[in-house]
Design goal:
Elements: E1 10-21, H1 24-32, H2 40-53, H3 55-58, E2 69-76, E3 80-91, H4 96-118, E4 129-140
Antiparallel strand pairs: 1-3, 1-4, 2-3
Length: 142
């Protein structure tokens, strides 16, 4: 890990987003609350919150950060779900990795929740795609 002992803690915020492309049938099941495993978006939100807090356990060089706020929200499109994650902390290093991990785990959770709807007759996922994961905003206050 990089030595951050000489750095000052300052307020930091980052937002990330990503998208999962799904069949319309899966989107309809999510919208209608008909996913067999339960509420896909609420489950994905909880998974994202847990992942944000455990980022330092997953990414070897990440520092353990005391997350002060985490917000996760979704945009439902005709054939995709967009996940957004915003993290705030007062610390010596940024929170970009936490937001990226939160988005990634939320997207994977959505996939897991609807994979039975996404499979083709051969058990493959020809149209399901996770894409466009990026940091959309980063703020470091001084």
């Amino acid at each position: 890990m990089i030595d951050i002992s000489g750095k000052e803690s300052v307020p930091r915020m980052a937002t990330a987003s990503g998208k999962i492309h799904l069949k319309r049938e899966s989107i309809d099941a999510i919208r209608g609350g008909k996913v067999k495993k339960g509420d896909a978006l609420e489950t994905a939100k909880v998974a994202a919150l847990q992942a944000v807090k455990r980022t330092h356990e997953l990414i070897p060089h990440c520092h353990q950060i005391n997350v002060e706020e985490c917000e996760v929200w979704f945009d439902i499109e005709d054939e995709a779900i967009v996940v957004h994650c915003r993290v705030k902390a007062n610390y010596k290093t940024g929170v970009e990795m936490e937001t990226l991990v939160g988005v990634s785990v939320a997207l994977l959770t959505v996939w897991d929740m609807v994979k039975y709807l996404e499979k083709d007759e051969n058990g493959q996922y020809p149209t399901t795609r996770i894409m466009d994961i990026s940091v959309t905003e980063k703020i470091k206050s001084r």
